[in-house]
Write a structure and sequence with these properties.
The chain is built from 13 helices and 31 strands. The chain is α/β, with parallel strands linked by helices.
């Protein structure tokens, strides 16, 4: 039986609780410090509360501790790891190999995607180093994932939804080089989302003011079963900086997708407990989304960028038919509501927007009339007020099914309750037995009172009676017994919860290779780790010693291919190389490694 995990993001406790309630089998959240999203740290108290809640559903809480660390920070990170263990966390997501050389608690370790996990050889190395799970690079195809799974035994986690970095994760140094903000230390300045001019070697402008490195968002929702068959066990939604609406909507969307597969495939099983019911229709287009792409999942393709804006345009909404002094007439099949956010591209090509103040039929009255809007302009909705209102209310329920059994004893009755995880508790209650004058009503009374589970995480599924004859039991007694059994069951489930075990560590081998700045070695412990593995030369991380003239980005994405100028497709360009990207007074040279089908970016 293969366990299938839906892994959802949480920037804070509220998002984490919502993720669990909307069907996540696991949640990943930032530690108070040292997470790869510096703006998404959380207190130990909040993490402990999230762990207690998630574990009730057998859902796991994974902690992002995945930045590079200085020598001075290692001790603090070690202490923090123990605090997280004591708070109930299930696993640590790490990037810095120096942490493997300190005294970590007996927790499962996951290799962050920042450790650049593109090959089977790399995944084998990390497995030998003691990681129980590896988060795969987003650039991998289905065939590459299957190959890695066939040659390794470690759990494989893969992104299925959300933002894409244009560079291989952990291999982007442009932010550090240009403004001292290290992506590997959680402070990325997002140079990939900036507008650039593209110039050739003669200074000819090929493109102007386009977001040439800003990729669309990943969406692999149509490939979940092939990914399961290939060996993926954890399906990850990106978004530790995303809001509550995004977490609810996207988690629910993938929960439904996975449940549809699990209902048909007997060899696969949900990794946590409980069935989730939704009170809205999940729709990825309704929350933050830069378009969508399946990236390189089945083959290399163009159309990967959203060159006109790095922002979320929203869903296609309609077309302007008329513009009045204080209104806009729209041709649209969508319902419209006060509070909707509408976006459009101005004649200058900039994404603009306005808020809907009032709607009359197909006529919109904006809160502030936008300039430069004209008939024929296409509109998008990036904020759906009616949809958000659904998400603000109770939008889901998650329950664990129970089976009740009540049997006659010499001195009263024995009550037994068992949940879907086969956890059961029983109690004997001494009470004078009263024969039921109305047998059918007596049975209905027992069923009704045992099913009153209120705000608990349980839902009654069945009731079995083992009586010699029908008995009447007062509702007050049944309610009291139910409360006692549910408290016992809660305690039994808590006691029976088992965190994942830490994997055994072997001695990985690098076979005397040289490691340059891309190994991201920022502290002495990380250097020691690689030297033990056989590395003969270990250069310091870019953050410790900035290298001149080295690539600042390593990308599978290629601008030449995106523009239809790939020489492998017999489509050479007319522009002289090298090409350059220019933003204000900053200039970068592009190098196309056609043998490897990769693109590199240098400071010019």
């Amino acid at each position: 039986m293969h366990l299938v995990e839906l892994l959802a993001p949480a920037k804070n406790l509220e998002c984490g609780l919502a993720a669990v309630n909307h069907g996540a089998d696991a949640v990943y959240i930032g530690a108070p410090r040292f997470g790869a999203r510096a703006a998404a740290g959380n207190s130990l108290q909040d993490i402990e509360q999230l762990c207690r809640y998630a574990h009730r559903f057998r859902a796991k809480v994974l902690i992002a501790l995945n930045t590079l660390l200085t020598d001075d920070e290692l001790l603090e990170a070690e202490k923090l790891a123990w605090s997280l263990y004591e708070a109930g966390a299930d696993a640590l997501i790490l990037q810095d190999m120096g942490l493997l050389e300190v005294d970590l608690p007996p927790m499962a370790l996951h290799a962050s995607t920042q450790t650049d996990n593109r090959t089977a050889e790399r995944v084998v190395f990390l497995q030998q180093a003691g990681f129980s799970r590896v988060v795969l690079a987003r650039e991998l195809s289905l065939a590459q994932i299957a190959d890695i799974a066939s040659r390794t035994e470690v759990e494989l986690e893969a992104f299925v939804h959300g933002a894409l970095c244009v560079s291989y994760s952990g291999q982007c140094y442009i932010s550090q080089a240009m403004c001292g903000r290290s992506a590997n230390r959680g402070a990325c300045a997002q140079y990939c989302r900036l507008p650039y001019d593209l110039e050739d070697a003669d200074g000819t402008k090929i493109l102007r003011d386009k977001h040439l490195l800003s990729l669309k968002d990943l969406d692999l929702s149509d490939f979940l079963f092939p990914m399961m068959q290939a060996g993926v066990s954890s399906f990850k939604i990106e978004g530790r900086l995303k809001d509550l609406y995004y977490v609810k909507n996207i988690t629910a969307y993938y929960r439904r997708k996975l449940d549809a597969i699990l209902d048909k495939e007997e060899n696969y099983k949900q990794a946590s407990s409980g069935k989730t019911r939704f009170f809205f229709e999940p729709d990825p287009a309704k929350t933050f989304r830069r378009g969508s792409t399946d990236y390189f999942f089945d083959r290399r393709k163009s159309g990967l960028t959203q060159p006109d804006t790095p922002k979320s345009m929203g869903e296609t909404f309609g077309t302007v038919t008329d513009v009045g002094p204080n209104y806009i007439d729209v041709s649209s099949t969508c319902s419209m509501a006060n509070g909707d956010g509408i976006s459009f591209f101005s004649t200058q090509g900039n994404l603009s927007g306005f808020r809907v103040n009032r709607v009359e039929g197909r006529r919109i009255f904006p809160a502030s009339m936008p300039a430069l809007l004209k008939p024929g302009d296409r509109l998008y909705r990036n904020q759906d007020a009616a949809f958000e209102k659904l998400l603000e209310a109770k939008s889901s329920e998650r329950h664990i099914a129970l089976k009740w059994e009540i049997a006659e004893t010499d001195n009263g009755f024995r009550l037994i309750v068992e949940d879907k995880d086969n956890v059961s508790v029983a109690r004997d209650f001494d009470i004078e037995k009263q024969a039921a004058h109305k047998p059918e009503e007596a049975v209905e009374n027992i069923l009704r009172n045992l099913s009153k589970l209120g705000d608990t995480i349980y839902q009654s599924e069945s009731l079995s009676l083992h009586f010699s004859k029908p008995y009447f039991i007062p509702a007050s007694r049944l309610s009291a017994w139910r409360r006692e059994l549910i408290a016992d069951l809660d305690a039994a489930r808590e006691k029976g919860y088992r965190r994942p075990e830490k994997a055994e560590r072997q001695l990985p081998s690098l076979q005397s290779i040289q490691l340059d700045y891309r190994a991201n070695v920022l502290n002495r412990k990380a250097k020691l780790f690689y030297e033990k593995a056989g590395a003969q030369g270990v250069m310091p991380a870019f953050e410790a010693k900035a290298e001149e003239g080295v690539p600042l980005m390593f990308c599978k994405f290629c601008i030449k291919y995106e523009m239809g100028c790939c020489p492998k497709l017999a489509a050479p360009s007319k522009w002289k190389e090298p090409w350059f990207l220019k933003h204000n007074n900053q200039r970068f040279k592009l190098f196309f490694d056609c043998k490897r089908c990769e693109m590199q970016l240098f400071k010019a």
